Amino acid sequence: MERIKFNLPYVVVFIPAYNEENSIGDVIKKIKEIYVGGEWQDYIAETIVIDDGSKDKTVEVARRAGVKKIVSHPYNRGLGAATRTGLQTAYEMGADVAVKIDADMQNSPEEIENLVRPILNDKADCVFGSRFLSGFKYEKPFYRKWGNNFFAWLVSTITGMKITDTATGFMAFHRRYLEIFTIIKDYNE
After folding, report:
1. pTM, full prediction
2. Which of these, 118, 128, 109, lies nearest to 168 by C-alpha position?
3. What are the contacts of 174-181 at 24+ separation with CB within 8 A?
4. What domains lie within the chain, and their CATH numbers?
5. Predicted local distance difference test score (pLDDT) of residue 105
């Protein structure tokens, strides 16, 4: 497949979704409001949805919210499979940067710029966001909070870097990464 070339960097924001009819429209609208067609931007942004076999109206809501490209799995294959499909689709679309954001508003779409910027400035190939650094409110059950805190401490200790969200679903990848990535599990939460 021939890569589409733009004068500005091309950012594809993909949203893996399984039965997210209640929230996906809000995420899409917020992304479009902030990033699509903005005159201040130095990149082109497009949002796509990876429907992981939803049985509700996720696809219909996404279309109504203005998403033009939706890739659907015939059945629920898991978040790993949906992420793999999103990365591969972004690569095939010619993305310079692919951004993954959850469909359930766990991450603030306003923070996409903070993920994309280090990649566009060629300071990183992968950037992982955190639900906890920007003051964005995300409540989770105690056992998940405890587990995340423990693993954040463990990974921070091992890597020597401050890690706050080891289960983030908010990440961005340079095209160099998209050319070589491998996700081997179709994991579910």
Report:
1. 0.83
2. 128
3. 174/96, 174/97, 174/119, 174/124, 174/125, 174/126, 175/91, 175/95, 175/96, 175/97, 176/125, 177/125, 177/126, 178/87, 178/88, 178/90, 178/91, 178/95, 178/98, 179/91, 181/87
4. 10-131+167-178 (3.90.550.10)
5. 85
